[in-house]
Amino acid sequence: SGLLPLVLNTWPFRNATEAAWRTLLSGASALDAVEKGCTMCEMEQCDGTVGFGGSPDETGETTLDAMIMDGTSLDVGAVGDLRHIKNAIGVARRVMDYTSHTFLVGESATKFAESMGFLPEDLSTAVSRAIHADWLAQNCQPNYWKNVVPDASKYCGPYKPPDLFKAQKSSSGNPVYKLGHD
Amino acid sequence: TIGMVVIHKQGRIAAGTSTNGIKFKIPGRVGDSPIPGAGAYADDTAGAAAATGNGDILMRFLPSYQAVQYMRRGEEPERACQKVILRIRSYVPDFFGAVVCANKTGHYGAACNRLPTFTQFSFMVYNSLKNQPTEEKVNCI
Predict the structure, then answer these.
(1) A18 to chain B: which residues are within 8 Å by CB?
(2) pLDDT-based confidence at B82, cuts 50/70/90?
(3) Could you tell me which of A15, A44, A165, A123 has the C-alpha nearest to residue B135?
(4) What is the pLDDT of residue A169?
(5) Residues of A in contact with B100 (CB under 8 A)
(6) Average pLDDT over residues A11-22
(7) Does residue A38 belong to the interface with chain B, where contact is any CB pair within 8 Å?
(8) A81-132, pLDDT tens digit by residue?
(9) Coil, strand, or helix at residue B65?
(10) CB B4 within 8 A of CB A37
(11) Is B19 a catalytic residue?
(12) Strand ranges (DSSP E) for B20-119?
């Protein structure tokens, strides 16, 4: 097709697109281009929703998810809940290239990354710590708990299921979607 | 979150995602991004897609896989993306989500679910017809 090659990505992350395109022009593969493009976003902390220093969890920690897929072989490498490693897409690529597995998670994914030569680092920043501190100051609002005690819409945890479970009809949408995206 | 689709000039396709998820998630939570068929999917014989939005909802519908299957059946990329959005919306009317789609010939499109605070979705394109990365926007449906 005269339209090829093509780089297409979600959100207006220009430098990631550029990095992927340059990788293609250098003669590298589509997989390499995806890895380089996503790595650029991880380094630039695109939108605060990619890479280190963004989207702290309830404990203030930033964790990363990434996946890469080869459309020729349908091979996949992925990591979830990755901690202490900045280059999540790079680790996902290593899962694809150097294991027969598809998806590694959590601290075990971190250990795998370290075995592949990635250095463990603190993924929090002054910005992510401030975001988390503000959330604590607002009684942990918003959060993703439901049907627990104490009332998660008013108070911080720890939460437990109520003795008499009263199922509440859950909202079809999530009211806190503006806080970020996957 | 970034979701990316790349098609090499020789037709080999790759897709990927990277994200730090949503703020204030319960520790251990993983979204749709690292799940094949949810955050992204690629198949040289049809095309590729990537989704973004609320992963807790998106992952239940495998939107990227569904979009690729629509394109395999001959749907244009934008229509494939729209059909994915409409399918999710039939179950979850106010979900936050968008999808980008590209078929194996390099045609592409995108779609998003219209909300009061989300009426347009921006995405990036670079192909042989452009001399720089180009931001494009689609009105949500």
Answers:
(1) 126, 132-133
(2) very high
(3) A15
(4) 52
(5) 8-10
(6) 98
(7) yes
(8) 999 999 999 999 999 999 999 999 999 999 999 999 999 999 999 999 999 9
(9) helix
(10) yes
(11) no
(12) 40-43, 47-53, 97-103, 108-112
Per-residue burial over A68-107, b = 16 or more CB atoms within 10 Å of its CB, e = otherwise? bbbbbeebbbbbbbbbbbbbbbbbbbbbbeeeeebbbbbe
Residue whose entry in the numeric block shows the structure tokens 């250990």: A111
Which positions in chain A touch B89 (Cβ < 8 Å)?
none
Identify the three-state secondary structure at position A35.
helix
For B42, counting Cβ atoms within 10 Å of its Cβ (0-12 exposed, 13-18 middle, 19+ buried), the class is buried
Amino acid at the residue A67: M
- Closest to A75 in 3D by CA, of A107, A97, A53: A97
Residues 103-132 of A with CB under 8 A from B: 103, 105-106, 131
b/e per residue, A2-11, with b = 16+ CB within 10 A? ebbbbbbbbb
Can you give the pLDDT at residue A179? 66
* Tens digits of residue pLDDT in A92-105: 999 999 999 999 99
Burial of B76 (0-12, 13-18, 19+ CB in 10 A): middle
The tokens for A18 are 């550029």
Contacts of B61 (CB under 8 A, 6+ apart): B38, B84, B87, B88, B91
Does the distance separating the beta carbons of B117 and A178 come in below 8 Å? yes
State how far residue B138 is from chain A, nearest Cα, in angstroms: 11
Closest of A61, A49, A151 to residue B3, by C-alpha: A49
A85 vs B: CB within 8 A: no
Report how far residue A100's alpha carbon sits from residue A97's, in angstroms, rounded to the nearest whole number. Answer: 8
Name the residue type at position A149: V
